[in-house]
Amino acid sequence: MLQVQFIRDNKEEVIKQLQVRNVAASIIEEVISLDEERRALQAQLDNTLAESNKLSKEIGGYFKSGDVEKANELKAQTGTLKETSKTLSEQLNEKSDALTNLLYKIPNIPHPSVPAGNSEDDNEEVLKEGEVPKLAGDALPHWELAKKYDIIDFDLGAKITGAGFPVYKGKGARLQRALIAYFLDKNTAAGYTEYQVPHLVNEASGYGTGQLPDKEGQMYHIGADDLYLIPTAEVPVTNIFRDEIVSENDLPICITGYTPCFRREAGSYGAHVRGLNRLHQFDKVEIVRVEHPDNSYKALDGMVAHIQGILRELKLPYRILRLCGGDLGFTSALTFDFEVYSTAQERWLEISSVSNFETYQANRLKLRFKDENGKSVLAHTLNGSSLALPRVLAGILENYQTPEGIKIPEVLVPYTGFDMIS
RNA sequence: GGAGAAAUGGCAGAGUGGUCGAAUGCGGCAGUCUUGAAAACUGUUGAGGGUCACACCUCCGGGGGUUCGAAUCCCUCUUUCUCCGCCA
């Protein structure tokens, strides 16, 4: 969430910049007035407590010196102070909660380079690269290919669990494993440390990265234990740093991790969710960075370049989009989406999303570092997929299909142990 | 799952219901000494709110309670450790 202090100090600017995301100015006004009320109550409470602390000390003194009468006299005075402080702290809690809840509803301030816009149609294409292969007229979409070569079984997954939980078989399963290993190797070679993290998280972690409270319906919830299945590794990985103060020398912190991801995707249907296009469970390798604020945009560029490198090696046609205000994720200040061209479906598939959250997550997480003056400063957090497996797989199947079978991208052959699915 | 013990500052580890935000050691930082470093010595060193700056307030795993006053007493939750059971 945004920092109240920042909103207070930059009110007009905040209002203006949030208009790109259609946030009403009245909400900001409300934050400011709630904060004022909160601080006024805090001051009153503090004074009341100070008074009663003082009295208690005096009473202690009298008891020590044996002046019980005087002590009891003072004791009588504490009653009303106690009442007052109780009422005040109740009011204060109410205000603080109201303020926090309101702040939870305000999205991150977009970076100045974020274009205005309402939907994905307004995203700005910043780069397009790679050759779209010319396929034979009878080129198949990946779900047909999956069936033809018996490498992914959607019906079987539906039988065991439900729609959106595919079963990978034989070379299909091996290709998945190869991709995970390849991605992790690329990331660790680029300086990211590999982590294995839990796939279920508690409520506090959900709040830490901003999935809660507003995206509650997107996560699977285990009621009996009050845990959530992770929708992305971002949640457990970023929460490693919840309530942490790291040393400035430790920055940047670069972590990569592979996890399955679980998303309810309620309300999704139709042709766009066919095959691997949208799943309830899928695999993803994620990169997460904790950065010094001065360096975070440079780091974002570095992450974009890193993912470009992977896509070039895979020889997949892709493009990079700068998300517009309307399509930008709630917690992000600037996001680049990567899309791979699906030749058989003749459409672009999102395979990565790389974002700088600036201090938005760090403020919720209380993730800070000590600067050179010994002051605690909120760090910047960034993350990106490198990469999401299903759509990369779809892209490979569709773009690498030949009459003889599906060729395996060269860089993956050492990982798969075969160069053709036929 | 059953029985017991514990949770204190970056770490280790004291703490009697009343100047305890907390002894002491280690670590960190600054200084003295040194050509430099080490050692030694001196000082400093938790977080948040609040203020122009002070004052002041809150925090000793989380939440609640007793009390004029709680790190210290009570309840509850969580976590860790030991023993038993089960188990990849």
Distance from first to last alpha carbon: 51 Å
Low-confidence stretches: none
Name of the top-level CATH class of the largest domain: Alpha Beta
Helix fraction bin: 40-55%
- Give the strand order of the largest sheet, numbering strands 1, 2, ... along the chain: 1-11-12-13-16-10-9-4
The secondary structure category is alpha+beta
Strand content: 15-25%
Q: What is the subunit organization of this protein?
A: single chain
What is the makeup of the main sheet? 8 strands, mixed
3D shape: elongated
CATH superfamily of the largest domain: Bira Bifunctional Protein, Domain 2
Rg is 27 Å
On the 0 to 100 scale, the average pLDDT is 90
Number of helices: 13
Q: Based on DSSP secondary structure assignment, what is the total number of beta strands? A: 19
Main attributes of the structure:
422 residues, aminoacyl-trna synthetase, EC 6.1.1.11, eight-stranded mixed β-sheet, RNA-binding, aa-tRNA-synth_II, alpha+beta, three-stranded antiparallel β-sheet, nucleotide-binding, 2 domains, 22% strand, Serine--tRNA ligase, 42% helix
